[in-house]
Amino acid sequence: MASRQIISGVHVIAMGNANGFLIEAPDGLTLIDAGFPGKEATVLAAIQALGRSPEDLRHLILTHAHPDHIGSAAAIVRATGARLYAHALDQSLVETGGPFRPMQAAPGTLRRVLCRVLFDPAARTVPIKVDQTISDGEILPIAGGIEVFHVPGHCAGQVALLWLPGRMLFAADVFMNMMGLGDPIGFESLETGRASQKRLAGLHFDAIGFGHGAVIQRDAMAKLKEATA
């Protein structure tokens, strides 16, 4: 299955243990995150499954510049002509393809292991020019309105995105929801990451998607508040 509908207008795409999200709107398709390298065919298959063509993907928004979120960005843009967005603090990483900023493992044995196995700051991705930088508090006039929240900690240029028409929050790697809702595998700054977690827990939304792990479709606000209590 190329993708799965979460709520009306939003589909999750599994891209190598990382999630991308495809939003359908009258102004075309918007993709949030590009997954690991080599996942462009998965994205194109998801677009085709909706009865759309590659050119219908108008926007690609990167939540942050780690290889599992930007890895296929260059190939997807090349195949679709989509406009590329990222926060200014991560723009240079997208445009150079790395190396990436070091990260310390989040608390707990499992996350120490996952961080060591899954994150390599020396990894490289195919460079791609960012067409537009995005900033905290901005509402992008895309898909009926997408609000930007700068939520550093896991990554300095990380953003979360709130799709206003569907009241769905895309939380990037502020949290992950694998074997329970909790920390991502690591932080550039644990203190800053904790502040970003509390910020997201104070927002209003109906559903929430993560860069890694299962979407929460019901009682999402309550579950996020519980995780940060």
Structure in words:
- This protein is of the alpha/beta class and 229 residues long.
- The chain has a single domain, classed as 4-Layer Sandwich (Metallo-beta-lactamase, Chain A).
- 27% of the residues lie in helices and 26% in strands.
- The chain is built from seven helices and 16 strands.
- A seven-stranded mixed beta sheet has the order 1-2-3-4-5-6-8. The chain has a five-stranded mixed beta sheet with strand order 9-10-11-12-16, with no helix packed on it. Strands 7-15 form a two-stranded antiparallel sheet.
- It is globular, with a radius of gyration of 16 Å.
- The N and C termini lie far apart (36 Å).
Concise account of the structure shown:
This protein is α/β, with parallel strands linked by helices and 229 residues long. The chain contains 7 helices and 16 strands.
CATH architecture: 4-Layer Sandwich
- What is the makeup of the main sheet? 7 strands, mixed
Average pLDDT level = 96
Q: pLDDT under 50 segments (min length 5)?
A: none
Helical residue percent? 25-40%
Strand content: 25-35%
By CATH reckoning, the class would read Alpha Beta
Q: Strand order, biggest sheet? A: 1-2-3-4-5-6-8
Task: Based on the model shown, name its key terms.
5-stranded mixed β-sheet; Metallo-beta-lactamase, Chain A; 229 residues; alpha/beta; 27% helix
Topology diagram in text:
Blueprint: E1 4-7, E2 10-14, E3 19-25, E4 28-32, H1 40-49, E5 57-61, H2 67-70, H3 73-80, E6 83-87, H4 88-96, E7 104-105, H5 109-118, E8 132-134, E9 139-140, E10 146-150, E11 159-163, E12 168-170, E13 176-177, E14 181-182, E15 186-187, H6 190-201, E16 207-209, H7 220-228
Parallel strand pairs: 4-5, 5-6, 6-8, 12-16
Antiparallel strand pairs: 1-2, 2-3, 3-4, 7-15, 9-10, 10-11, 11-12, 13-14
